[in-house]
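Escalation from tier 1.

The customer reports that the assembly of two entities below gives different structure tokens on two consecutive runs. Tier 1 could not reproduce it. I'm attaching the input and our single run for tier 2 to review.
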Amino acid sequence: MSSPGEAHPLPQRRPHWGPRLSHVNINVWRLLAFLVFLVVWWAVAKMVGQNFVPTPLETWQAAIQTYSNGTVPRAAMDSILVCLAGYVVAAIVAIPVGLLMGGFRVLGSTLEIYVDALAATPRVSFIPLIIVFLGLGYEAKIVVVFLGAVMPILINTYAGVLNSDGELIEMARSAGAKESQIFRTIMLPGALPYIIAGLRVGASLALINTVVAELYTAVKGLGGLLSIYGNTFRMAPYFVVVFTLAIIGVCLMQSLKVLERRMGRWRYNSSERN
Amino acid sequence: MSSTTVQSLPVSTSAAEEPAITVRNITKMFKRHRSHEGILALRDVSLDIGKNKFISLVGPSGCGKTTLLRMLNGLIRPDEGEILVHGQPPVPGTHMGFVFQSFRLLPWRTIHENVAYPLQLHGMGKDEIHERVMRYLEMVGLRKFAESYPSELSGGMKQRVALARALVSEPDILLMDEPFAALDAQTREFMQFELMKIWHQRKAVVVFVTHSVDEAVLLSDEIVLLRPRPGQVSEVLKVDLPHPRWDYDARARPEFVELRRHLWERIKEMVAADPQSEFFNRDGKSDHAAAQD
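Tier 1 run:
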């Protein structure tokens, strides 16, 4: 769950070799890795020709230009809004449905197969249908993002409730807990780590589907810029857009990790569970 | 202390006193998955348990000790017969505390929140909960761990938390299902003394399931020996060692030694005669029979 380079006071879980990673020198290592990346990038750019791969410097200049004239920030704002809207709606729908499916076994068993079917269908195949119904605007994009993010959250929530600890449930029952109390005090907190894992998977899928939606429907946002720059061989600004997407992805994942750690504090107290 | 089967024996009811728990001719069948035939877990079991008595249920695997304990709690119902706790069929709740072998603490709650759990279920006020929780954490010696999480505690400490959680609702019946079986030998011994002291401080009926003959003799007023497949009461034995037993070396007493020897002999007989036991026919008396398989 935690990459070895995280700046967090966790007990080290795995034995590892080499110098110990501390808070300070991990950032030095990260910077070093970035420099290596820049050098390799520069070398590749020089070798394959600058029409295909711009040099780091050209990309930097393009970044300054596209950011200062507002092209990329405006597009990013557009994309983030679509992404968040679809994602939030997905979470609002998926978590309660997953909880209901887990809480009422009959409902869960009934819907399970359809959920799996929908999860297995490539979501891109729905896009023509969505366009027919909703056109090319925001609604269509949000629905594409929603469809991408909803299934992993739902499936994880459901699995989390199903995996609730029978022994803890019996303990609660022997203390006189009602079924609703068992659900609230045992099954729900037990499912929380699963729900958060689902939210993380859902977040990356939401971002992917944002770009997919922007490429297939009205060309807007970062996906739209990718398409415009790509089709006109303006590779430097194209790279700027790619990096912008990467940065958004990292921010999204990091904020979910913070949430995860806060919710699941008990899991990090020791490598031993229970 | 005859070795014949004693059933329906009124255990431990001192003179005119009403028993706290009455078990009358209960039978329990468990259905096997995908098969119509069931397994008879308990057959025609009767017991009386007096107020504030410490009773141990002892017997080989498959004698229905844990099943009986769950039925006393009201978690499962008997197919036949009747169980009365203070004259009523049992319902799970705060008048009974249950301590499990696997400590069953909620890993996402602090120790304080874990002990508070049964009180919160029944809507007690915050201040009262806090006062009670701290009182019982004090009793089990874990007051300063109130804000720790279960994962930070050792096995013995976790079981003390579970004990505090069982006691916090001030039950007059404490059901314990092999509570110390998951602990190492030394911790186990300390926990036995801890339990004795707590029991003297705060009397309650204790029904204690254990595999350990030693533990049963050391702790109990009475020992109910059960025989397996189907579970039946084999005999009920009184332990005549004076209380409190932490003041002297109870294990060195001749009564202790004799009682342990007797119980152990009986259990060995039962296991050797049980075709479903892995030690079937391994008592040395019938080697040729075992060799024929």
